[in-house]
Design a protein that fits this description.
heterodimer, A: alpha/beta, eight-stranded mixed β-sheet, six-stranded mixed β-sheet, 22 strands, elongated, B: mainly alpha, MetI-like fold, 0% strand
Amino acid sequence: MEHSIIRVENLSVCYHADKRGSRAVNNVSFCLDRGGSLGIIGESGSGKTSLAMAMMGLFKKPTRVDGQVYYENTDLNRLSERERNLYRWAKMAIVFQNSLDVLNPVLTVDEQILECLRRHTPLPPREADKKVLRLLKLVGLEAKWSQYYPHQLSGGMRQRVLIAMALSCDPEVLIVDEPTTALDAAAKDEMIKLLARLHKEKKFALIVISHEMQVITRLAGRVMVMYGGYMAEAGLTKDVLKNPMHTYTRGLIHASPSANPYRDLWGIPGEEAGNSSEGCPFYNRCNQKVSDCKTKLPRLAYVGIERRVACNRGGIVTLLTGENIYKSFSFRGKTVKVCDNCRMAIRSGEIVVLIGASGSGKTTLASILAGTLAADRGEVLFEGEKVKGNRAACRKNGIQMVFQDPFTAVNEHLTVRQAVAEPLDILKQGTKEDRIQQVKQALKDVQLPGDDGFISRKCHSLSGGQRQRVALARSLVMEPKLLIADEISSMLDPSTQANILRLLKGLQNAKGFAMLYITHDLALARKIADRVYVMQQGSLIEHGSVPDVLSKQGDGVAALH
Amino acid sequence: MKYVKQGMKNIKGFTLMGKTGMAVVCVVLFLGIFSDRLSVHPYNLPSGSAFEAPGPVHWLGTDDLGIDLWAQICFGARVSMIIGFGTALLAGIGGSLIGICSGYFGGLIDKIVMRVTDIIIVLPDLPTMIVLGAFFGPGIRNIIIVLALFSWTVPARIVRSKILSVKEEKYVVAAKNYGAKFWHLTIRHFLPNILPVVMVSVIRLFSKAIVAEAGLAFLGLGDPTSKSWGLILNHAVNFRGIYFTDYWKWWIVGPSAAIMLLVTAIAFICRDVEKIVNSKI
């Protein structure tokens, strides 16, 4: 750690410390190399700006800052305010979040920048004037703008002025807080280019705080994900974005338009529920929480090279793995290979799409994964347990399957209540009232009316789309961790199909189950898949993220287009 | 209660013929139940002189012993109904259960059941029934058993084929996946599916049983104390001097008409039920 310029250790910020106030930053530690770059990402309120302010030493009582911020080898938090001022701005500067009130409205651009120079450098006035012009040029502003007042400038220009102010004393560390908020796309792009250029030219260490993926991807080599004041995940930006290990990071990526050119956007459900001192801060919104998470605060731990995750379960867990699955059917002496050495892994809370032409063995593979069909060779593990028969299906939090044909998926002689409550009835779970309650909740989840009139209707009086939703509700009462959906929308009209898919994705997002979606529709896969497997004649020929796989020009993929 | 309501609704959907049939069956049922009250004369003791023509005292006349024929037919209705219901229910329920087991479990059970049904279908009913009837001895219970023994194959085969197709439905696969056992599947999924077809075949069995019983009785294999319709005919035909009198026709018309009327009525009902069952799905 000798060459690192900034080292933050166990930094905590507590607002209103005297009145048992809230902690905005909790034990954050990281270090940054000279000339390196670090992105800090998180939802609003995750403590990003508080962290930056604490590093700059801008908090006054009653806000309490604990922990150490080392600049080279000096602990800045121990210095007096006077000593600290030597570092502030001269060595470490911050570009505040852009808004009108950051700049003094009664000073011109010129005067604003001069003020910094006068405060922190011993430059004579003439030199200082020249420097201001040089700075403006550096950030891409023409000299004429120096005589304008802040309110006369556009948002992009003001941002440039702020950067110019921050760079006025040639700092070693530059903290940029939300450099692109409230800018239009073109200005955003220019701003990112400018910061990248400055970083390259001036060789300062850059800390970018943003909630926009795009900004972080382009500016920061490493990224740190913050949630509720805690670090959730840290690693190389490329790795983290490609393969997030924390459910929160994944949620952020799924919510980012730039990371999802085709897919629908879905935010992380739920709100942060207060700062409980114990337990995982993400507990309420996590899709793979266990009872431990409520009481045990996860520590940031290495899970790979340059990769740290704060999760009690060691990051996103793999729910289901299928290893070397073989299956063939023989008929009149002829043998047809339906699954040939298939491997598949499904992680918790993700949507995996299995795509392939009809007859490529998709349904067979799905049945093997669900346990309804026995494989010739190979094994399927669900949460580390072998899947055999209905062991994974006949319990809560297991695997559930929804079938293609809505008309045979539900017994038309049953009432809606009987159909949905069937698994509960079979497994004899809860009292009769409990079951009815669960049925009503499940029907509400799938957007069907849950009133007594509807639940006592016979299923043959329902339409295909409604029946498919009843079948879905039947699966949902079992609170599955993995839902296998076998072409569930292929027999429905486009509008109903769209409704069902959006409903399913919404449910998946809200309840956090993983889903294996089987389809032959490429456009659909592009719309919903986190990862995609391509199956051809019994083998899985490709797998990976949707853009990666679909851009490949292999025969198997091309045939699907 | 729900099923009664549903049934009433279905009966409203009957054609005129079906409704008439229903009325006839109800009347016969009524006759059977209240036979003691409906006839002023006893069915087993003479109440007039022999061979009386129909008249105000004896509505349908009397037989060779002077026993009132109307009373005999009323009492015979009871026997016919008991045998009809008994056989139809026994063969219907038993046959359906065997069919469900055979279709659901398949394998050896299925093979055995199917071969047994083949044998029973191949055997000519009436001669075998005569032999069995003679062997077991007369008596309503024995007749029901013998008739049931020969008619369970029809519902069994129909039900088996239905179960074979229902078994592959996804909802049954799903229910099995949840760990559903045989009884759950039978009650929840199989019964509602097979009930309509079973109902039609049970109604058919009903009329078949009535005719078969009459046939057996006619041949003298019925319960001599039961006074069923077939037995009245048996008496009439076996009375040697009958053709020397003018009254024999009164003796034969009554019971024959009763049998024909009932069987035709049931046939009409059956046709309507079939129509309703088929149009529902």
